[in-house]
Amino acid sequence: MNYYNYFTEIEEHFVRRRGKHLMISPMDWGLIAAWKDAGIPLQVALRGIDMAMDSFASRQRSNSKVNTLAYCHDSVIAEFANHLESHVGEAADNPPTPDSGSSTATKDEPDIQATIHFISERIGEIKGLEAKQLGEKAAEGIQRVLERLDEVLKDINVSGRMDPESLEHDLSIIDDVFAAELRAAIPADRMQEWEAEAKKELKVYKKNLPKETFEKIHSNFIRDRIHRNFKIGELSIFRL
Q1: Cβ contacts of residue 193 below 8 Å, gap of 6+?
Q2: Nearest-CA neighbor of 53 among 40, 64, 38?
Q3: Do the beta carbons of residue 51 and residue 170 sit within 8 Å?
Q4: pLDDT at residue number 96
Q5: Taking a C-beta distance cutoff of 8 angstroms, is the pair 76, 36 a contact?
Q6: Which of 35, 70, 97, 176 gives 20 to 30 Å between its CA and that of 45?
């Protein structure tokens, strides 16, 4: 991933988690640069941001917002430390082999080689989609998604290991971005049809679930329709 995209992905994710648009400050850009120079991978930085924002949200400050990326710094550093600890000596001491996945996977965890194949298939589908005329802006966004998926595959191949929970979180973030890019290419009348379907099918959930939980279910419903529309599998290892 190039230098510019590292900044862009972090900025957009932070603004999305904040829930209201905010132009990040020059100091925040400097903080991102420090993360980049320290070698903190993009997915690790995004997980750290999520950890910090989840912690903030749990305090139930209904009218409060996080106004600076610096709030997330400690969580990003903590997540990076966990990342380094889990990868110590892997490249040198545990080089990946063609059947390394089958020897390390447990009964309850997905097989590494199956996961690599799964992600590679999604990349192939997305590259096929890229050739379609979705507009220049969407094409740029899709290219960023492909770069991030390539980084995920590279990390698994180099280490010969994976943390299913962290991987699922990373793929979920990428899929959110991907679905948002494709949504812009959906005709308005089709979106209205899907919203009508959601209103009907999710009625029981709306009555019985907290607003935040219902909105997540509604978002997943629309995202599923978007994936089906473009014939692209969801980016989730639960789909293995």
Answers
A1: none
A2: 64
A3: no
A4: 43
A5: no
A6: 97
Question: Over the chain, what is the mean pLDDT?
Answer: 81
- Distance spanning both ends of the chain, measured CA to CA: 26
| CB distance 52 to 71 below 8 Å | yes
* Contacts of 173 by beta carbon, 8 Å cutoff, 6+ apart: 13, 43, 46, 50
What secondary structure, in 3-state letters, does 72-88 show? HHHHHHHHHHHHHHHHC
Checking if the pLDDT of 151 tops 70, the result is yes
* pLDDT surpassing 90 at residue 49: yes
What distance in Å separates the CA atoms of residue 130 and residue 182, rounded to the nearest whole number?
Answer: 11
- Residue 7 CB contacts under 8 Å (≥ 6 apart), including other chains: 29, 32, 33, 36
| Token code pair at residue 224 | 């599923």
For residues 113 and 102, is the Cβ–Cβ distance under 8 A? yes
Do residues 42 and 6 touch, judged by C-beta distance below 8 A?
yes
What's the pTM value of the predicted model, to 2 decimals? Answer: 0.64
